[in-house]
Amino acid sequence: MSNGTVQQWIYSFVTLSIVFRTEGLFVNITYVLSGVAKGAVCLDGSPPAYHHDKGFGTGVNSWLIQMEGGGWCNNISTCLSRKNTRLGSSKQMVENLAFSGILSNLPQFNPDFYNWNRVKVGYCDGSSFTGDVQAVNPITNLHFRGARVFLAVMEDLLAKGMKNAENAILSGCSAGGLTSILHCDSFKALLPMGAKVKCFSDAGYFIDAKDISGAPHIEEYFRDVVSLHGSAKNLPPVCTSRLKPDLVRAVAFIICFLPFTLLHLTQ
After folding, report:
1. Under 8 Å between Cβ of 99 and 118
2. What is the pLDDT of residue 247?
3. Mean pLDDT of the chain
4. How many CB atoms lie within 10 A of CB 95?
5. What are phi and psi of 114, to 5 degrees?
6. Residue 86 above 90 pLDDT?
7. In this predicted model, what pLDDT tens digit does every residue of 1-46 receive, in sequence order?
8. For residue 179, what is the enclosing H or E element?
9. Under a CB-based contact definition with an 8 Å cutoff, are residues 74 and 131 in contact?
């Protein structure tokens, strides 16, 4: 490695360190212990969790909720591989999370939302918060309860002031971005009638297209996700209510799990 390359790496590292120290804010984790009794748990049975930095000043009644991304698990094997990571257990989540960018509390870095209530919701269910299967296999001890996790977290936030929200944004990236679409209407329904509510999906618009070999990979993949997690009953009613009863199980995952259908139906 040349001296020039080494110097570039050092410069980049120092620059990032300065930016991080200037902008970085560490926020403590909150475990939603009350959700456990309701069956709202991560894949491993641990309680849901999130990080919340309280709003202040003119932003005290404004809320920015960011749903963590991290793909999905579509079979027992892939869910087991997530079970003992932060994507399957709140025990493995970072206790003190750095808030920066859209979650920063500094106006020079985040002029629009710096004084809002900013929340990062941990993603530990593998279904974009749509699953709900009561039975738990004692061998794998996998819990498919994503929809319950979403509701438990929102109820906890409502009790901490979100019930008085005047402005609210449900956002997320990738699988979290899909979450923001799937739960947009249900999120709005939890808030006061006069609240201004928006949903923001960052890289969460997944299309039902064949892969390079011509196989319907995404269709089969999401069908498995919905089937394994029991998600069909938790997909947006504005979509599922339009399906014929005998088709719900077979095609709900195609029509009501992917964004291209939901965008024009979301209220």
Report:
1. yes
2. 60
3. 90
4. 11
5. -60, -30
6. yes
7. 555 554 555 455 444 444 444 456 999 999 999 999 999 999 999 9
8. helix 175-182
9. no
- Say how far apart CA 20 and CA 235 lie, in whole Å: 38
Q: How many residues does the chain have?
A: 267
Q: Quick check: 169 pLDDT over 60?
A: yes
CA dihedral defined by 171, 176, 180, 183, rounded to 10 degrees? Answer: -140
Distance between CA atoms of 37 and 35, rounded to whole angstroms? 6
The reported pTM is: 0.88
Task: Output DSSP code: residue 206.
Answer: -
Give DSSP secondary structure letters for 46-109.
Answer: PPPEEEEE---GGGTTEEEEEE-------SHHHHHHHHTSTTT-GGGS-SEEEE-GGG-S-TTT
Q: What share of the chain is helix, strand, coil (3-state, %, to 5)?
A: 40, 15, 45
Instruction: Break the chain into its structural domains and give their ranges.
Output: 26-262
Burial letters for 164-176: b for 16+ Cβ neighbours within 10 Å, e otherwise? ebebbbbbbbbbb
As given in the structure block, the two tokens for residue 187 are 């999120």
Distance (Å, rounded) from C-alpha 118 to C-alpha 62?
9
